[in-house]
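cache lookup: miss for this entity combination. No prior model stored, computing from scratch. Input as submitted by user K.M.:
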Amino acid sequence: MSTFLIRHAHIIDPANNIDAQGDLYIAHGKLQPFAEGMEAEYTLDATGLVAIPGLIDLYARLREPGQEKKATIASETLAALHGGITTLICSPDTDPVIDETATVELIHRRNDDAGFARVVPLAAMTQHLDGQQISELATLRDAGCVAASQADCALASVSTLRSIMEYAATFDIKLSMLAQDASLAGNGVMHEGLTSTRMGLVGVPVVAETVALSMILELAWQTGAAIHFSRITSARGLALIRDAKAQGLNITADTSINHLFLTDKNVTGFNSLCHTQPPLRSAEDRQALRDALSDGTLDAICTDHAPHDPDAKLAPFPASEPGISGLDTFLPLLLRLVDETPLSVSDVIRLASAGPAQLMGLDGGTLTPGAVADVVLLDPTDNFTCDPHAFRSKGHNSPYEGSPLKGVVKHAFVSGQHYPLSQVEG
Amino acid sequence: MINKPANIQLDEHGRLKHFLSIEGLSREIINQILDTAAGFAGVNDKAIKKVPLLRGKTVANLFFETSTRTRTTFELAAKRLSADVLNINMNTSSTSKGETLLDTLRNLEAMQCDMFVVRHQDSGAAHFIAENVAPHVNIINAGDGRHSHPTQAMLDMFTIRHFKGDFEKLRIAIVGDISHSRVARSQVHALSTLGAREIRLVSPKTLLPAEMASFGVEVFHDFDAALDGVDVIIMLRLQKERMRGALLPSADEYYARYGLTTERLALAADDAIVMHPGPTNRGVEIEGIVADGHRSVILQQVTFGIAVRMAVMSIAISATEQSSARSSHS
């Protein structure tokens, strides 16, 4: 494997509180201490570029195997690099679902063939995600699944959930959970509130999140299971998490990048591109989510990436499929948070690198010498207008079309493998 | 962060091109519809009930949900405007064979229809069709999910104006299953745009959608209290399936608290009128004797529905014709 020297970069490494000019040395797939005079096979002059640890996305749907018309591992791992992401944690709701080691192996093989970003699967909590029969969680963990998830599917009962949490706690397996009570969510398609009433769309009330959260938190106290709450959406949900953390419960939480920018009002006009699951909530909720990034209630930001074929959104709103294609725009939107909140660049990068790495126990998320060489070089001043048709993701379903964005990834390194992105065409 | 959608009901000159919802329409346009309908109401009383405004045009009724009254009055309205009418029962046609809504639409466009009257179970369906239809086609929403039923609201406004006159003097109560009602939503928008003095919504909390009070209405759970001084009582249909599960315990308990009986009617203003979009459930939301009584204008609503639908269709067609006339001159 080649040795690389990246010179004169503006290094932002939140895990080490570094925000300064510097050089990075990559050998044997890892970052190495650099001293003047060391030679490398390739030297890259990164003047004007920012070097950050490769981002880690906690929740992305890659659609392969099973729904390759929507996306493939090859298309989405390349899109991820353009969004600054070097590790994708993929949801288990593929077809077949990720409930057997054979499926994990298939995903790894496709990932090896494609290259680009690293894919780390989530195990399906239950077989076929049927909500009843627990999967072989320990075997799946040994095969490379970083945690277990029930995707957006319901569990049969609270006692099923309790058993899964006890079993997961036995083997120190993290559970990544969407806190949403299925019966309260019903057949809702957006946030229950003024806009859902106005549009006559069935709402998902905030209590669908908070009731589920309260239940999982109580079970976490009892079972000792390590819980990560995936895609928290509401102010009241955050309050529950804040309290539980203050009391010392072993939990972490993220929200999606979309919930930090969009609200239920964006659904106005039956905009199916803003049909998401979990739903976009009120402006007050969005503000609470932004505040929770600063005070430690939220540990990370994910893409909640959901690529679709065009037909999936070409239907009356309730019949359209939920989700936003979010890989290509992830880094530009994170940088936009810096403009719209008190967060610094270092803060937002931490929430998408060191934050997710720590809570999932993954290598990476840092530029510390000795760490895996996942590095992204970006030009933070490069402005462009969001054009979903130019996405590397096969899913062009993005409501951000026409938004002015900045921040373009020029190079990515995944385990020291160099991807010069300005030249790569998807 | 992302752009607000344009009001796709209006063309670039602010004229009504599609009739999708009352929300977003000015008082001027609503009054234009009511005034035009008043002209057509005369036509409907004549021996020869036809005007040639839609001669040579084809109107397709696309009903994805069954309806007798609405479909029939649309058909009559189109025929009295001299249009050719195509009735397509979408429940039994290609959409049930897996064809997408968009495919169905493209096929009907290819048959050179000029106007689609659409009823669909999904909120936003008419909106979706209007966004995706060829530019020369007008879309009239005949009811979409819980969202909107704008021609029903307009015929209700016509009826109120006919019997009661100035909206700014009127107290109006809308009673029953607000939550599942596209009619109630459209009525609230129409009444508030027309400046009604007071809009009272009456229902148990289980049948009331979230944050309804933000719509400039007063919410009542006590029907008797809500009737005080009311000039217009609009009863909503309560569907039988609402009795299953936990929304309501029984028809009897509902009727005892929210049914419009002769005794209750006496609590309203002396000359209050009783309206209902139909079909009525006698003994569930309204006493038979009230529905048939001299204060009831339920059948007049149906009659006025034809004139109102003629008005909406002719206004929409004329916007499209004026646009195409302009573009062929230039």
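stored under new cache key. The first helix of chain A runs from residue 73 to 82.
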